[in-house]
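Usage

Read records sequentially. Each one opens with the input sequence:
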Amino acid sequence: MRDENPGSEPARHSGPDRAVAEREGPLNGSRGRPETSGWVIETVISPFHCLYQDALHFHTQSHLRLVRSESEASRLARGALLLYIASAEALVHQAAVELGRPELTALIADPGRPSPLADAWRLLPAIVAEGPTGAFDTELAPWPQFAEMLALRTSWLYPGPAAQRKAYYRSPRSDAAYEPLEPHQTPSGLPVSPDSLLYPRTGLPRDPYALRPRHLDTARSVLDAAIEGLDRRLGGALTRNQRHRKEPVRVVYPQQK
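and closes with the structure output:
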């Protein structure tokens, strides 16, 4: 039902981390002769691409673990959901910097004054150089579903009082395993509304322990549809030539002739 083991502490190591030590070079502090320094490449990372791929990995692992342990699958599902939403944040902020008019970029891409993600997605077309090219109706899919997905993450980060954090579990017997209560399982006379268990548009559970791989399938579909919708409003500029995923690489050492 719930996650019982918060996880053991990572093993302690003496000395510097291996990856750090390898970057520090020879122990005497010298960089070595150029002919033995190897090759160095430079790349420009896409946090959206990185985080989205990480989310896909946890998403897949959540499905695979479900047959063995629902608590493990749920733990991976929660991580994947947060990564999907983090990738959405990276996508819109990167687009604001790369596509937006410089004097307006800070409206949604200033880390010192972060805007709610829903507002950033709504405002992005207004600050890009090409301007908005499509209508935006918040009542049409996928925007209500996307709003629920963001609301779920917000409810985890801003939990509120205990009265807003109630969750319900059901078991066929008092001594059997308890599972998250589904709306159709609610006994008559128990004052628990379906909307207090699930978000109405997406069916995403309000209880984080109740999140399952099937809910991730929904969340990913909603995010992909939201990206497509935003791209249409930008006339295709958001994803043109895979701009949002590209991570170009070039050799910087040795210098090419």
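Summary fields computed downstream for this record:
- The chain is about 45% helix and 5% strand.
- Residues 40-159+212-253 form one domain.
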